[in-house]
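Hello again, I could really use a second opinion on something today. I've been staring at a protein lately and its backbone has me curious. You're getting the sequence in one-letter code plus the fold written as C-alpha cells. I'd be grateful if you could look everything over and explain what you see. No rush at all, and the record is pasted right below:
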Amino acid sequence: MKIGVLIFATDYTIQMDELGTELESRGFESLFVPEHTHIPASRLSPWPGGNELPKEYSHSYDPFVALSFAAAVTQNLKLGTGICLLPQRDTITTAKSVASLDRMSGGRFLFGIGGGWNKEEMAHHGVEYKLRFARMKEQVVAMKALWREENAEFHGEYVNFDASWQHPKPIQDPPPVLLGGETDYTLRRIVDYCDGWLPRARHGFDAALNMARLKTFADEAGRDMATLSVNVFGAAPDKGILEGFSEAGIHRSILPLPSADRDKVLSILDDYQNLLS
C-alpha cells in the first residue's frame, strides 16, 4: 500500500516546492491538495466538518499551480487534487490544466474530484447545486475524449463542443479520475465513469466492509475491480490501522497535514516516517 499526505496549500503554509522535496526525500508516495476558489461571506451552507469553517478554506492556492511547484522539484512524487471541485470549473480549460500538469510532471498526476458542498460558492460559478453530479459526469466523459482523441467532440446537456484539437495530450491514458464521497450513489458513479474511489476516513472507515461495498457495485456494472483503486483520504497515522487497510486491499492511504509553517509540518513528517517501514 502506498502512503501519501494531504494539505491545504495556503499563503501561510510551508511552500509547496519545499514540501515536495521533503516528501520525496522521506519516501512518501504522493501529495494531495484540495480546492476552493473562494468562500462566500454569507456562510449559508453549513460546513460538513462542524460549526466553524477553518481559515484555510478561504486561503487555499489554486491546486494546479500549487502542484506545479511541487512537480518541478521532484522526480517520482505523485501529485493529486483532493479534491478538485469539477462542477465549478470550465471543462475545456480544466482538461488542458490536467493534461499539461500530467505531461510536464512525467505522468504523475492523480485527478481527485468531487461535487462540493457549498451552494453559494457553486452559485457564483453559475452552477445549480442539485445538478452538480449530472454536470460532473458529462465533464469527465468530455475531458477523457479531449485527452485521447485527435478530433474530440462532445454534445451533452451541460457540456457541448464541436470537433476540436487540444494538445498536449497527457502521458497517462487517462490520468486516473478518483471520485470523493461515501454514499452508494458515489460508488455507482465510480464504476460508471471513474478510475478510483477517494473516501474520507474522518467518520470511520471499515476497510474490508467498504472494499466489499465497492465490489458489489462493480460486479453489478460488469466492472473489473482491478481497474479501480481505493485511496483513503485523511487516514489516521496509526500503524495498526494502516496495516489493516493494506490487508484489506486499500491501494493508498493519505495522511493529513495541518496548514502550518515549515517547522510544524516537517516535525509531523518526521513522526509519520515511522509509518513507511
